[in-house]
Structure of Conserved repeat domain protein:
Amino acid sequence: MKHLSMFGVAVAVLLSAPLGDRIVSAQQQPKATVQNIQSQRPVQLNLMAEKKVMQKDAQGKPKATWQAMRGKVTVFPGDVIRYTVRGANSGDRPVKNLVLTQPIPKQTTYILNSVTINHPGVAVTYSIDNGKSFVEKPTVKVKLADGKVKTEPAPAELYTHIRWKFDKAVDSSQLVGAAYQVKVK
C-alpha cells in the first residue's frame, strides 16, 4: 500500500510535486522549474494530480473518471495518475520563451503519448538522463547478439522529465495548460 500526499503550488518560477511514502518525497524529487528566458515576468502556476478511477456506466460498460488527489491518497501498483499544470500570465505584457520542465515522479512510469496541451505552438521534449538533455523522441543504443549496435526508441521506463517550450508568446491574462499521465510501479 502506498500513500500519496498532494497539494497545488502557485509560484512564478518553481513547481514541485511532493508525494509521500514509497512513491517519492519532496526532498528526493528534483524540482520542476518554470523558466522565462527573456525576462522575469510573472506566470502563476498550479500543479494538480488526479487518479484514474474505473466505474461502470448505466449500460454496465467500463468508464474512466478522474478523482482529484487531495491530502493522503492511497495508490497501488498499476494505478494511473494524471498531472496537470495550469497557469496564467498575470503580468501586463506577453511572456516569451516560456519553458515548463516537469519531472516524472520516481516509482512511476510515464505513459507514452499521454501529453495534452491547450496552447498552440508548444514543442514537447523528453529526457531520459535526469533532465540533462531533452529530445522529441528519446532513443537508446542496444547491442545485438551479433555484436552490432542498433538505435531503438527509449522505453517509457527510462523517461525522467517532460519539457514544454512555448514557441508563441503567452499573452497577458492568457491561460495555459499541459498534462501527462504516469502509472504507479
In short: The two ends are 12 Å apart (CA to CA). The CA atoms of residues 42 and 91 lie 6 Å apart. The chain has one domain: 2-184.
